[in-house]
């Protein structure tokens, strides 16, 4: 069943390489834990997403947004690929610095920071910080006077699935005052930043924001700041399955044209971005098991069914809102092009289909995967549902409410990630992580890191032989 679950995802041929196979995987397939929810993560895919980003916007340096997926494996591969990192808290700073990443490759991009986290950044040489208020400037002046600041601008982000501008960003009108306040406090503002909201649906959102940043640069120069860095944030769509593709010409064309117009190369402004979802969306496929099932009939329901009416089937899954399906977009059915393709049963596309409510495992009634019902064939307890494109804002947002643990992540790597990681395989891993090491197209073994012990590169090399 599990094999067919993964193999069943036919619309993405690349993912078929991840089918569990070989001797090393048999214990996973046969283990007791097989009924628990899990994710398959493809470390090699990070290299191709990085390449795609750099090809689309070669003038922009990506600073990966750690909040999107903070797996140590992800951070390690991206560090080896040479990305920078966007951190939002001390813990994220610690994670990235702990991998040996130079502080100059980090931006602390949270405009509202606790004083103690600012002090941590100062002590560890992380200089690039964002701000959007006078109060934040006062804090930075006190705790990190040597910071290099980017003024975060409010954007028009209605075109994004997750707008954030009500919470963060200064209005263009407020910028003049903020820039002079920074100067009066002896702080260096070195540029501007914005964030168009996650899963932005149109590149035109960037055009206006980039034009606004040009105004901020002019104001900044007027206030005596050396404006040299533009941060165009994240928000780039990541999915291969639905929605506009970033790689489509319109995205790179529109953003590049806006940059060429307002920040032509000869001005020497360094342009950075903070992509998260773009790198991570397709990184994971989630497998979720049906643990209970119930048919709900309205009054007179059986009679209605006998006359061709239908019951609503309620399925209780072992992952949900408090696990990998936290983020609201998972509740937007439209996010999925074809929910049927995610059911693992061979007959998944065969009618009859029933309206179904998909619940998570906790005792919270709002713990649902979708706000709306979905139409599925009748399924059984023990069946698996497979959800691709589950790498962004899933594991990083999950918790163990009601004692249901977050899904185990089963990492796979091919020769690309293998070569990138090299001897750096001694990682401070969380417990219980599993990795299937794949080299030259072969699965070598499955290794589980046990509590307290480090991952040993020797064991990997043994496996390679
Ligand atoms: N930058 C900032 C400031 C953010 O708040 C976020 C996400 O919330 C990101 C970057 C990453 O955004 P995305 O995953 O949409 O690329």
Automatic annotation (TrEMBL):
Biological processes per GO annotation: putrescine biosynthetic process from arginine, via ornithine
Keyword Repressor: no
Modified residues (N6-(pyridoxal phosphate)lysine): 67
InterPro entries for this protein: Ala_racemase/Decarboxylase_C, De-COase2_CS, De-COase2_N, De-COase2_pyr-phos_BS, Orn/DAP/Arg_de-COase, Orn_de-COase, PLP-binding_barrel
Active-site positions on this chain: 363
Family designation: Belongs to the Orn/Lys/Arg decarboxylase class-II family.
Designated name of the protein: Orn/DAP/Arg decarboxylase 2 N-terminal domain-containing protein
The organism of origin for this protein: Piliocolobus tephrosceles (Ugandan red Colobus)
